[in-house]
Amino acid sequence: xxxxxxxxxxxxxxxxxxxxxxxxxxxxxxxxxxxxxxxxxxxxxxxxxxxxxxxxxxxxxxxxxxxxxxxxxxxxxxxxxxxxxxxxxxxxxxxxxxxxxxxxxxxxxxxxxxxxxxxxxxxxxxxxxxxxxxxxxxxxxxxxxxxxxxxxxxxxxxxxxxxxxxxxxxxxxxxxxxxxxxxxxxxxxxxxxxxxxxxxxxxxxxxxxxxxxxxxxxxxxxxxxxxxxxxxxxxxxxxxxxxxxxxxxxxxxxxxxxxxxxxxxxxxxxxxxxxxxxxxxxxxxxxxxxxxxxxxxxxxxxxxxxxxxxxxxxxxxxxxxxxxxxxxxxxxxxxxxxxxxxxxxxxxxxxxxxxxxxxxxxxxxxxxxxxxxxxxxxxxxxxxxxxxxxxxxxxxxxxxxxxxxxxxxxxxxxxxxxxxxxxxxxxxxxxxxxxxxxxxxxxxxxxxxxxxxxxxxxxxxxxxxxxxxxxxxxxxxxxxxxxxxxxxxxxxxxxxxxxxxxxxx
Length: 505
What we know:
Blueprint: H1 2-17, H2 28-41, H3 64-101, H4 107-121, H5 130-150, H6 154-167, H7 174-189, H8 195-208, H9 215-224, H10 239-245, H11 248-274, H12 280-295, H13 300-314, H14 332-351, H15 373-381, E1 388-390, H16 395-402, H17 419-431, H18 433-442, E2 447-451, H19 457-466, E3 474-477, E4 481-485, H20 492-498
Parallel strand pairs: 1-2
Antiparallel strand pairs: 2-4, 3-4
Helix pairs in contact: 1-3, 1-4, 1-14, 2-3, 2-16, 3-5, 4-13, 5-6, 5-7, 5-13, 6-8, 7-8, 7-12, 11-12, 11-13, 12-13, 17-18, 17-19
């Protein structure tokens, strides 16, 4: 019967994670270009080499190993192969959680908690370095629960090596140290006989975080990175902020998160009844990751992962190895329910009705959106040369396709630029026509490439003003991008051939 549960949950996760590269215009291109540079030079860049505006600004690349992996995989199997790899990694994440929990809890508890977890994990299922953090976090959780409840030590010995990979793959590596700290507190509170082993694993794992290209600075970067953010992105906002501004699928995900808090509260109450001291690890885990999710919605997937074990143990049947008494329950209803749900799920996928409430970019398939590719092709075909002015969202794609021949104005890494750059240059150039005139002349901007899905107030003001500016005619526009070309003698032929007449954007 548990095999049916596993099949159902794996199918559900694959359905949500097997979708096109929704970040084609945002991060993936920059990751591939950095992976290429690191592979070829055998060095990790420490400055913002892609931008002509702040090329010497220091930059700590805390995900360089992910980028090398993405680059190598792209060279081998292409972008569609990256999508498949991402799905396999997420399936491995779920497999680790189910492997850790299936001996401990009943099937209904496992089904219910994992279903809720998947509904939150689907918020962040694109090809990003975060995928490695999900995998490594699941490994740490598996090791902790197998040790705590089943006494298995072998998993603990692998944690320092996993942390070594993690600290070079994604900034969430700090969570590995946090998980082990919670386990260390738990074993000392409960006077576990192997608490010395946990202490030494914890200490070695902490020291391992220093083994990264930036040493101590890199190890501490998760604690300092937001001190240098001059640009706010939606994924880093709290649920309290986004409840007033978010819409669509983002708002739906927030409501799903809020609903899980009810079940989490019930699960924690049941764990209290089982014993506060015995569940120290679970309380620390649930509290910390709930705070993370409430602080930034990008942490929903992390919260979803930790929700699975906490809810499972809170709602477990009493016939598990960690229970004090044994009661019998009838597996037949849950088997029938699982089989029926799986059948309906497969039918819904086949008929495509399952996706009616999802954006087209997140529907099942291996499609690779064009993104800014037509705009880049227009630039190359017509031999346009920079300097470029571009917005935050499209910078990474331009890096991917135009670097090193062209450098960008900005890209999707707030930490790679100074706060003053965003506050005194980037935003004013879009909101103040006088500042645009001054700074575009100062930077000698020749053309503008914009992802016109940018809904920030400054971007909308800029697009409206530029579409009415006779000195910057529109020469290209499609579903993703728009290009404004400066009216100069050398650009005259392109303008005469492609300029569009508009009444405003």
